């Protein structure tokens, strides 16, 4: 369990999320993921990275139960800083990152997928931001890279989800895999195609594409996080998180 890194000498590395039961990462898990992505991208033998997950879905975001059982705001601050570090590590990874999404991709999962260079997804995978229902905000920056602007707003306000097939129609998912298919194998095939190129050119291509992005994704996300802290100071966030925990525990 945790974060695993696998390489096979082909120039493609897999960074795998494995936090059962739903890949809701604890605060230290986000930092571990960030470190793994940075170190893997820095390895000259790695030419492309597949970001994937074990279990029922890609990522359900932060571990809300950890926040509720930790006194004060220490867990909240750690999770926010951890998410910032992990999302930035995907974006800043020295080589292209291909996200392989199956099942659900929610909250922080959207932050990871939205900052990836390419997405391969199961056609029935679901993407969404349930943050409003949890008394938080964030990752709209990354959702805006996946869906049209007004749909992004609707998804934030209503917490509705879209599927991998929907994102393929928008052009933000490169390839959809039929339900039950091997998403990771499809992502590895795309990564292998990239890894076969000149590695120096690919690394400069990644750097140059980041340099021409119209939005500074790190600054934009940090702005969003400020409102999450405001909601916590107001007390509404804690009440929303506790409702979520109570519903899951049958309370």
TrEMBL record:
Molecular-function annotations in GO: lyase activity
Domain of life of the source: Bacteria
Cited InterPro entries: ClpP/crotonase-like_dom_sf, Enoyl-CoA_hydra/iso
UniProt keyword Lyase present: yes
UniProt-listed GO biological process terms: fatty acid beta-oxidation
Keyword Lyase: yes
Record's keyword terms, sorted: Lipid metabolism, Lyase
Pfam family membership, one: ECH_1
Gene3D superfamilies: 2-enoyl-CoA Hydratase, Chain A, domain 1 (3.90.226.10)
Family: Belongs to the enoyl-CoA hydratase/isomerase family.
Family annotation (PANTHER family): (7AS)-7A-METHYL-1,5-DIOXO-2,3,5,6,7,7A-HEXAHYDRO-1H-INDENE-CARBOXYL-COA HYDROLASE, ENOYL-COA HYDRATASE-RELATED
Protein's UniProt name: Enoyl-CoA hydratase
Organism per entry: Phytohabitans rumicis
